[in-house]
Model the fold of this input.
Amino acid sequence: MLALYIISSLVIIQAWLYMTTYVNRYAMWRWYEYALTVVNMAATIVMSTTISESYIEGGTAFVISMIVMISCVGTLYAIQLYIEKQDVAAARNSFEIIMVVLLIYGASLVLSLCGFKEESLLINVFAVILGIALLLFKHGDYDLKIISLPHLIERLELLTIITFGEGIVAITGFFTVSEISAVSVMIFLTLIFMFGSYVAQVHYICNHHQLKRSSAITASHYFIVLSINLVTVALLYFKDDSADHLFTACLMSASLAMFHVALLSTSSLNLPEFSCGRHDMLKSLALVGAGASVIFAFMDGPYGFIVGSLVATGGNFYMLWRKYSSNRCVNVIHSVKRGRWATASATSFVLHRAKQERPLGVNTAPHASGISS
Done:
C-alpha cells in the first residue's frame, strides 16, 4: 500500500509540475487554455477516486486519467508550436519530453488492459523516473527570459505550503481538547522545523530574480513534496501501536534525509552571499544521521522517536536560519538588492512578453540566448 501511495503521489506531482511549467512560460489564459485546464482538473478528480489499496481494482482508470492530464499539457504546447507567437524552441523541448512520457504511459495502459496490472504499475514508476531525468538532462537552446523564476518559485512554494497544511491536519489525532501532551507538541514542532527550513532556504536564501535554468528547483520539489507526505505517514504509523517499529524508524529516517537533500539541492539558485557547498550538505546529513541514531536507539519508546526527529529537523532549521540571519546582518543592503533584482527582472519579463505580442511585421530586438529546461 505504501508503494502505491508513493507512486500515486509522484504521478500527481508530475502532472501538476508539467502544467505549472506551461503556465509559467506561456499562459495568456485564452479560451482554449481555460478549457484544457478544466479537463485536466476533471481528470485529476477521476484519478483520485481510482487510488485504493489494490492497484488491480482501478489501475486502468488510473493510467487513463494520467494520460488525459498530461495530454492536456501536451496539447497546449502543440498549440504554441502551431501559432509560433512565443519562443517555440522551449515549447518544442517540453513537447518532446511530454510525448516520450505519454508513450510510456500508453504502454502501461496496454499492459493494464491485457491484465498485466503489476507490470503496468512498474511502467508507471519508470515513466515518473524518466520524466525527472529528461527534465534534468534534456536541455533546449532557447531564451531564458521566457522563464519567470519568481512566478515559478511562488507556485512551487504554494504546492509545498498546501502539503505542509495537509500534514498538520493529519496529525490532529495527537491532540485532544482535554489534554495536550509533550509528544503532541514535539510532533507539531517537527513539521514546523521542516517548514522553517524550507522557508529559510527557498524563500529567503534563493535568489528568485535571475535568468537561470529552472529544472533543478522543479525536480527537487518532486522529492520535497513526497518526503513531507512520507514524514506525515511515518508519524501516523508511530501513533499506530500495531505498526512495526523498525519499519516506522526506517521510513522516518529516510524521509528526513530525502527532504533535506532535496532542499539543499536548490542551492544552485542561492544569492551570492549565501553560498552552499559540500560542507553544508555533509553537515545537514550529519544532523539527520544523529537524529536517526536516536530514533533507532529508542524506537520502542514514545519519546526517543520524536526526540530523534527533532534533532534532525531542529538542527537543520538552526543551520539554515543562522546562515540567512548572519549574512543578512553583515550585508545590510540584502533586502535592497533583492528589490533591485525584482524590479529589473520584472521589467525585463514584461518587455519580453510585450514584444512577443506585437503584430507580425514589427521589428524586435533579438533576445539573449541561453540554455534552459
Notes: The two ends are 34 Å apart (CA to CA). Confidence is low (pLDDT under 50) at residues 329-337, 352-373. The chain has twelve helices and two strands. Residues 1-138 form one domain.
